[in-house]
Amino acid sequence: MRTVTLNNGVEMPLLGFGVYQIPAEDTERAVSDALAAGYRLLDTAAAYGNEAAVGRAIKSSGIPREDLFVTTKLWVQDAPAQDNTRRAFETSLSHLGLDHLDLYLMHQPFGDVYGQWRAMEALNREGLARAIGVANFYPDRLVDLIVNNEITPAVNQIETHPFFQRADYQELMSEQGVRIQSWGGFAEGRNDLFTNPLLAGIGKEHDKSVAQVVLRWLTQRGVIAIPKSVRAERMAENFDVFDFELTERQMAQIAALDTGASLFFDHHDPEIVTRLAKHRLDA
Ligand code: NAP
Asked: Pick the catalytic residue: 48, 114, 138, 169?
């Protein structure tokens, strides 16, 4: 398993399995299949409603805890967020059936961001979250969080795929010691990603699928990838990406697919900020 070293020395797999939009009733089976396929990094969130199913799959796998890397995410908390955050963390841990997390991410740059972050710093210092990070932070918010707090996020999980590549932002993050992690690495299939002629052509040169080219392209850039699939054969396909290398020419060709724009939503959009702020999880 290829790993990267985060800014606090913690080793994290470069490739893992995401469970967003997998219904809770299907998640235990999907995660069991993913673990059987070799995945050791699992990415869930309180907001996905499937942490307990992930926990059941972990338990029944019999895989030693130290061989797994489990990430979950804190949903938006009102001020003052310190106590809420600890409660939310404890709920997630209890759903997952674990006594610590490998990575705890602030899911959105909204609500009482500072209160959430300071509570997460405390969880990190206590060893309850081996690493802490953020998701969906744009450059201004990320730098603000870094310069005004003690612990620099280990990871920023952001939309990153061939049509929205974030190369400049990756460079800035790297200067700040923050590792980029891709969500929606396949753009959830938008823009006809899986039949894109350029990606398919590159795949043909290596006898690989479009999905494999995309995952190889991400990981070759040092971007942590967490593809989601409910199908065991695709899980295996998506895991089999380290036996070939894209050439400089192919990397440059893929770079030309970048549109510089989100295919999902813009976290600067007031309507999105309002929608996410109003979303509340059941206690
Ligand atoms: P994604 O991984 O870009 O795409 C998943 C889609 O691709 C599914 O429809 C899946 O279908 C299909 N697929 C997977 N492998 C394939 C293959 N080899 N060939 C053809 N189709 C394939 O989407 P995502 O789930 O949005 O992103 C990945 C993970 O990132 C999530 O699961 C979650 O953990 C994380 N995420 C985080 C945030 C955040 O705000 N932090 C937001 C979104 C996602 P099947 O399932 O039918 O195979």
From this structure: 48
